[in-house]
Fold:
Amino acid sequence: MDRPCAVFELLSNASLRVGELCALRVGDVSLSERKGKVIVRRGKGNKYREVPVNIETRKALAAYLSTRPGADPDEPLLVGQRGAMTPSGVWRALQGYARAAGVAVSPHVANSHLNLSHFSR
Structure:
């Protein structure tokens, strides 16, 4: 459950777009006990930005990264059995968890900054 928690926390609490989320590399995550950030290298309008992350997101990212010891900083952050996660893979996972929680969700609803953090618990 570590990867889904990290995905949902980044989408909801850091307000990342799905494409930005899928483009993250391990080295784009900087975490400490008191602060953290993710670096979006090519966001909307091809812009660079640093996004601060709250404690829940830091905990979820730390738990997920602990499942990937020794990961190279240039590797994709989110990987599955077949490699890097894609936007369609993220949406399929999101819809599966939403269905299990009895909630309807669509890309439009999620992009409207719906707080998805309760799915990750």
